[in-house]
């Protein structure tokens, strides 16, 4: 990095700016000052093959970490042994969770097999992380009620959907107007985690609120389409080319739109993005404190609570698996360990004495 780049880095770390402004400036710095042509090539390589933006960001992050770990040697000069050293370092020195280590391995496997055309050995020998995953934090029904009573009204419907339909945060904020099926009381989730599509339940009690939200979107939509600079909502992959008018159709607009128009950093076009997910995370934390809930509450806690409460109500675990979009039922089985009947449904012998 040259002296000017180093000075810019120091300035960004020392000046006092609002969090959002600081974040965007830091991202600009990372992309435009620190990114190497090799990492940029990998990102473009992945985007051309329709990898999700977050997948691209994750893979580039781990590849960059790998290169820095080996003192900026080019990966083509490194072998299986060097990959093993890095993965062992993550386990021994960084105490990385198994999923974190697996994410790094996936990124490096992609790098060597797809980009460098030098596939790694199938028998890599490294110290695998054995950190025990945490059990999910689950709220009681009373705690859910208390949280929804005090949450900022603008975010209440989002929270109700995350709990009532078991949605991940990004699945909720990325919903489009036409993803709500009022006839069959369901929510369509497109390209969820792992690029999977699924249909999950919708509480009939939310229909009125959702239709009101759609009218709220319509008001924004009418104002946007009257703006000659508005290029329409962002559409995934080739949909914009296949359906040229779809970006300016109401059904494709985000159900939870941003308050302001913004310039798409990729296309440089004026669009209305969805609500910033960081705002939702912050409001959930604030609401939990207001409600007097002492547990570590996050947006994902609402999804955990959805799954646990379904199982408590007698739902079949396979049904819960489908609702959550889990590929493996073993992922869903973790919720059986937090039911209020005790671990694995075992009744404590102390109860018989007392």
UniProtKB/TrEMBL annotation:
PROSITE patterns: CB, TYR_RECOMBINASE. The gene is intIA. The chain crosses the membrane at residues 21-43. Residues 134-348 form the Tyr recombinase domain. Keywords: DNA integration, DNA recombination, DNA-binding, Membrane, Transmembrane, Transmembrane helix. NCBIfam families: integrase_gron (TIGR02249). The keyword Protein biosynthesis does not apply. Belongs to the 'phage' integrase family. The keyword Translocase does not apply. Gene3D superfamilies: 1.10.150.130, Intergrase catalytic core. This is Integron integrase IntIA. It comes from Rheinheimera aquimaris. Residues 36-116 form the Core-binding (CB) domain.
